[in-house]
Design goal:
It is a single chain. By secondary structure, the chain is an alpha+beta fold. It has a single domain, classed as Alpha-Beta Plaits. About 25% of the residues lie in helices and about 20% in strands. It has helices at about 20-35, 75-85, 135-145, 160-165, and strands spanning about 5-15, 40-45, 45-50, 60-70, 100-105. Strands 1, 2, 3, 4 and 5 form a five-stranded antiparallel sheet that branches.
Length: about 170
């Protein structure tokens, strides 16, 4: 019998795609995950944030969600990428506008890929927990809202501690 895996996910959108504007797209992503066997147990509010990437693109809407699934990490990643494409995401510039971005922040506390130097320009297939989450205010704010005591399995800090450690102007 498969075991239930707890997951933490991050969502971002700043471009109208096949599912509509960013708010509608993120809400549909929540529903699509549920239909595919990812039961979301907590969902943050939507936060408007400045983009990391090229200038001139719209602000992002960001959210985080906690959930449970029988899927393994690879199947969840495949599902996330499928939903991004279904929403209209296509290859484009790094950190450019997109209708949907779904990142796996944590998968059942699993640590994977941290034994090699992380190269954001050439990422490994799947690094767990997400290798950049501790540097991103737009991820940590919604994460701290839904899972303030979640502890990073590599760094040993809670979501709130990592958020507090960021400088106020960090993205």
């Amino acid at each position: 019998m498969k075991s239930v895996n707890t997951v933490l996910l991050a969502f971002g959108s700043n471009d109208t795609g096949l599912w509509g504007p960013p708010k509608t797209t993120i809400e549909r992503a929540f529903a699509e995950l549920g239909a595919a066997g990812v039961r979301l147990t907590r969902v943050s509010s939507l936060a408007r944030t400045k983009p990391l990437g090229p200038l001139g693109q719209p602000d992002y809407l960001n959210a985080a969600a906690a959930g449970e699934t029988l899927l393994d990490a690879e199947a969840l990643l495949t599902l996330a990428k499928h939903l991004e494409q279904s929403a209209g995401r296509r290859p484009g510039p790094r950190w450019g506008p997109r209708p949907l971005d779904i990142d796996i922040l944590d998968f059942a506390g699993e640590v994977r890929g941290w034994d090699a130097r992380h190269d954001p320009d050439h990422p490994a297939h799947l690094v767990l927990p997400h290798p950049e989450l501790q540097r991103r205010k737009f991820v940590l704010e919604p994460l701290a809202e839904i899972a303030p005591e979640w502890r990073h399995p590599v760094l040993g800090k809670t979501a709130c501690e990592m958020l507090s450690a960021l400088v106020p102007s960090a993205t």
